[in-house]
From TrEMBL:
Keywords: DNA-binding, Transcription, Transcription regulation. InterPro entries: AsnC-type_HTH_dom, Dimeric_a/b-barrel, Tscrpt_reg_AsnC-like, WH-like_DNA-bd_sf, WH_DNA-bd_sf. One of its GO terms (molecular function) is sequence-specific DNA binding. GO terms for cellular component: cytosol. The lineage of its organism: Bacteria, Bacillati, Actinomycetota, Actinomycetes, Micrococcales. SMART domains: HTH_ASNC. SUPFAM superfamilies: Dimeric alpha+beta barrel (SSF54909), Winged helix' DNA-binding domain (SSF46785). This is Transcriptional regulator, AsnC family. Residues 6-65, 154-222 form the HTH asnC-type domain. GO terms for biological process: response to amino acid.
Amino acid sequence: MKPSEDQFDAALVRALQQDGRASIQTLADELEASRAQVSSRLKRLLDDGTVRVVAAVDPGFLGHSILTHNMLRVSGSTAHVTEQLRAREETVFVSAVSGADHVVFETRFGSTDAMLELLQWVRSLEGVERVSTTTYIRIVRGFFVANYRGDYEPDDIDRKLITLLEGDGRRSYTALAGDVGMQPSSVRERVNRLIEQNVIRISAVEARGVVRGQLGVGVGITSRGDDEQIAEFLAKNKAVDFAAQSYGRHDFIATMVGPNPRSVFASIEALRALPATAAVESWTHLHVVKEDYARTLRPAEL
């Protein structure tokens, strides 16, 4: 049976999350569709902001060893809190949510002291009644972690290419070559090396939040002890946009995305049914005000 438009778009986004620079022909082959259909749908998704394809530098390369998920209970409007959080360079994701808590934000730090300093600042914000922090210990699914191992140090040309790809992960090799004054073949080699050496990943970021017409639901999972069963489910489930094993308030944190509540509900129900799952807490992303994984690179060593 021919997939619906929403189903096709979902499959296209998932393919781009695996390889943000996949060619139109490669995407068409994978989706068993025509080049014209893939090109048209991709253009619409990019033009209306449903999807962005960007490069993200691995947190380990940047020295960010502490990744956290934070939930706030706020009295009154959340806007003044989310706007202040959006302005902080430590935050990569900020969203107003439904449920017992009202704001969710994710952060990256190079040290525990830096983390504690930010959390102290958050607690001082007017209207913040409670801060609950969970620390990621293993990324199960997520495009922005490439597991950099320190085997390669980008030069200044690499760094310029990374900056350009952070703005547009599908920028053509010809355009990139013009930007850095090299041949397209040389640029292609450099970009592929940055990916192979786990310095960057290039992937699709899907807009979350009901105000964008794409439902995003966060879930916090308590495990009965068989963590690998939950991890395997989260890694393979197509609705899962991001998942991490963690410690703190939850044993796992995940985000599920879908075109309607029914599609997300089915995945949450399957998660609840796992023998390893003790409890699932969920919240809906109502308004995502920041989702930005681009970060300034470390100074070149001269």
